[in-house]
Design a protein that fits this description.
- It comes from Staphylothermus marinus (strain ATCC 43588 / DSM 3639 / JCM 9404 / F1).
- Pfam families: Hydrolase_3.
- One of its GO terms (molecular function) is mannosyl-3-phosphoglycerate phosphatase activity.
- Keywords: Hydrolase, Magnesium, Metal-binding.
- The chain is α/β, with parallel strands linked by helices and 287 residues long.
- The chain has two domains: 5-107 and 201-286, HAD superfamily/HAD-like (Rossmann fold, 3-Layer(aba) Sandwich), CATH 3.40.50.1000; 111-197, Putative mannosyl-3-phosphoglycerate phosphatase, domain 2 (Threonyl-tRNA Synthetase, Chain A, domain 2), CATH 3.30.980.
- Helix content is 40%, strand content 21%.
- The protein has helices spanning 27-35, 48-58, 78-81, 85-91, 111-117, 119-124, 137-144, 148-154, 170-181, 202-216, 233-236, 249-254, 269-286, and strands spanning 5-10, 39-43, 65-68, 73-77, 96-99, 102-106, 129-131, 161-165, 185-188, 194-197, 221-227, 241-245, 261-264.
- Strands 5-6-4-3-2-1-11-12-13 form a nine-stranded mixed sheet, with helices on both faces. A four-stranded antiparallel sheet has the order 7-8-10-9.
- A hairpin with a 4-residue loop joins strand 3 (65-68) and strand 4 (73-77).
- It is globular and about 60 Å long.
- The N and C termini lie close together (8 Å).
Amino acid sequence: MNKKRIVIISDMDGCLLDKTYDYRKSIDAIKYVLKNNILLILNSSKTRYEIEYYIKKWGLHDKTIFIVENGAAIFIPKKLVGKNSLIHNVLKKHRYILIDKYIIIVNGLKTSIIEQKIADIIEETKEKILWLKDFTPQKFSELTGLPIEQSILALKREYSYLFHPLVKGEIIDNIIEEIRVRGLNVSTGSGIIYLITGNHDKGLATKQIIEIIKEIFNKNIVTIGVGDGHNDISMLKTTDYSILLNCREDIIQELSNKNNIAITCRRGPSEWLNMVRRIVELIVKKQ
């Protein structure tokens, strides 16, 4: 029996990156992935421009697929697909566009459309909420700890809209509910920056890319999901094996019915590599 190609679908912040966002701390993890011929797919709330920054630093050009803004769009390098007619037949099932060097499957709404849908909410709450249009790179850096250079890239949203509450309590819950009533999703990793998107999530994008990857490798794959937050739950429920870098009880409870899951309280690239090694070794032994 042929060995299955291992595919890792991973969040970035808190997983491949720690709170310093220093790409150099992830080099060992990236080397491990490349050495073992593992296909790495990045699945993040980050923008295309942020993820491309790390792809360049990690030397992953045309070697990785990435998913942006909580599942809003999947970027597949054209060189990775080549002229494989089977892949193009699968892609026809999805709404995709060709831009630059990418085939892009679009699930999300454009940022401008999201802004139109909540324009009245923005106007009515400008004293209580810092909205995307009001952010400066300096303010975003102050709130998130991102360097200014990366904060500029983080604010170049294509399929999502950001906000930061200036007050606390029930009023914020009411605003979030009003946004959701309009058919939009609201999520947060830190409770500091909230992300508004269309009606999609990381799990939807994960299912789509697994279907496509199965065609590339003739269904001969095994998938590992790695995440650390609420917005990763739908992704972790979808993969064959899952790694949760967070032992928060509420997240664990959401994944209580998931088989083949490994949980650790530690986060960041070193723990990412430790846990991935464990699961990869387990998969290899079973093959």
